[in-house]
């Protein structure tokens, strides 16, 4: 019986045999609920940059220096396509799919709203949301940290950031939740995307007539150079990217970090004793250890780099979460150590596409942790409950059932 | 052996043994011969190691041997897996990967493609050779719930999905129409023009043989021949796309033709216009609009004749055993006049897609089939089909998945992005038009050669348009097909036909 191309291991002639290492980024049997540790272990013996013949065949980059070299070289490694395996008519996101300098005006338009000053100003609102969400979850005793906390918090923050009508919180949360639950259902995603964009479009109209100091009003007014403002389509596209980028990421970094924290009673006791003093260090270490985004690149110009022949049309996957656990950069990289000296990592990538929300994302985890330990004495994994996960370009924890001892 | 396709054939072999079951190019296959021949085929299959549930793939143009092989396979408890005789080796290989047949049979013109796809087919002449011979019977009877066929359908995905019917679903489908349509009793004469590898061809064959009718199989649509056949053989049932009825009416001999034998005349795939209705009404015939899809078993609803006269474009209100709803995305029923997705429920619908639990769960929810089609019910519950959610191009009655064409076109060097849309075509109704963007125009002849090598001929684009600008996108980052359709509405009038 012949096999269709999709099932084949694809190894083009330019790929040398010593760089081939089998790994299925979507469903590798070696990866478990502790995704980061098991993923790292599975590829520990693979070369720094290797060719995975599965999923149409693509390069995988696991070392921090190699990742930095590729992320800062848009001339050879383009963001134009980000699908593995490559698909016909890949989606195009503003500004994610734009190589510099085209992406710069859009980043400049967003930057002031995501800087430390703006995020600091948002903190009281983040705190209020975190408290409210944790209180609601605690009412339940045993609950799913993902569904009840990690998934709802970033949606609320997104609405706050955009200046959305918070009386529609539940409606929009429900929309967001269904969107991320139906990732494999193209028809549902299409319908839900339409509804989300409908909400955004209504928001644009509202902010045109009654502007405020929130992000959507800022998008409407932002000078893109030469006095040009963004078209409605551009604003919608940017809003959609922020929606995608702001939810799944913070949700899953938080989820994986709390999965680990649930198994570390000593660290919980320290955080309980001094949440305000230690939450920043915890957030930093959570971000270093539990990155969830792997960034694809398309080779658009042949280049030999680090002994690897990258050829036009090859797909490359930068394993940011693995790069942030590079044992050449970190002592005991798989240990969550909040006393670790702060060192650069690549969870947020680097170069022209450095995550614009990195200050906000870190702040969300920090504030959530402070509010958590105001209310929680200790918590642990609920015994014998499965913790499903998915891998791919974004790694996600789909459920995290926890048992909680509330603070007295 | 109760409520199986095989039990119905055995019944008609007893009751109407000499009546033709199938007439193909003048060659007659009686129910008695069909019964004996298919029994011998079943015994041969079992002897070759075929077990209940195994797949038997068939890649051939229509022939009486094909018919015998279908009923023999079902009698042996195996599952018929028809392969489109137009398929290219790559399409065949992709299909075989999911069906994994125990045996593959091929017609003389299909052997080479199958070999190239990596299998060693048996020759259809092996089946032909069993037309005469000693009585033979398979040692066991098929069960009602055993699957009988996997029919490949084109959906909105790039790869076809296999619709699975069982003995029980196919007999229930036939039972519904026997109850509902007294105009097609046993002994009725039916024209069928569809290849047996299509849903229409396979379902008509099995439906009308379960019902004890005679099928006149035509190798292709020829309006003059059809008109002649209807009169000469006193044909009673005729189903086709509206364009076929128009071609027949355009024949000079139509004016004096005697069509009084026709009792059940249905049209699907496109709307029946008032003008078409009136042309045939002058001959005493009411063309009735149908709606259905492979997944529901075939037809789901036929417009009642007395209502079709006033509302030719409507499709009826379901059937004796077939319920229809039109719903909003959240599953609640639409108000009369409100558009929504058409849902259907019947004992004749598929049990699911072959080895595809995700797509099955999507299509079958709480006992209802979600059609992916948009429709609207009027205040009397009569359905009007509005549009298909699935991205299909329907060319000469054959469904083409736009995504599949796009996948192959995008493989061609120099093409950055491409969409396939339907261009109107006087002969086929619709035909594929491809709009692509790249750094420069590509060699269209070479592109078409690439498509020819990887796609069945009817899927190969007939028009190719180059766009110097990137194609329009939605805010979600996806290409916008509605915007491209609008930009290229009249493109077929300006562009040359490239094949």
UniProtKB/TrEMBL annotation, chain A:
InterPro entries: Cyt_P450, Cyt_P450_B, Cyt_P450_CS, Cyt_P450_sf
Highest taxon listed in the record's lineage: Bacteria
Protein keywords: Heme, Iron, Metal-binding, Monooxygenase, Oxidoreductase
Keyword Oxidoreductase listed: yes
Gene3D superfamilies the record matches: Cytochrome P450
GO molecular function: heme binding; iron ion binding; monooxygenase activity; oxidoreductase activity, acting on paired donors, with incorporation or reduction of molecular oxygen
Similarity comment: Belongs to the cytochrome P450 family.
Protein name: Cytochrome P450
